């Protein structure tokens, strides 16, 4: 009966960087949530991978 959700960051590779064929799945730890990967647009792990050509997903285990 648990609810989980996925949040997607589509690949936004700039010209010269090829879109990757695989995806990245980020999963937070025990005492955090999906926002830990995208707290600040300047230092976002999720946006970094998307900008590098990866289709990036964050699983939210806390509902």
From TrEMBL:
The lineage of its organism: Eukaryota, Cryptophyceae, Pyrenomonadales, Geminigeraceae, Guillardia. It comes from the Eukaryota. This is Alpha/beta hydrolase. It comes from Guillardia theta (strain CCMP2712). Gene3D superfamilies: alpha/beta hydrolase. InterPro entries: AB_hydrolase_fold. PANTHER family: LYSOSOMAL ACID LIPASE-RELATED.
């Amino acid at each position: 009966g648990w609810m989980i959700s996925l949040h997607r960051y589509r690949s936004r590779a700039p010209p010269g960087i090829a879109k990757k064929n695989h995806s990245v799945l980020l999963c937070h730890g025990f005492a955090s949530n999906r926002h830990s990967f995208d707290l600040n647009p300047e230092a976002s792990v999720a946006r970094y991978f998307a900008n590098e050509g990866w289709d990036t997903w964050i699983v939210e285990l806390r509902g």
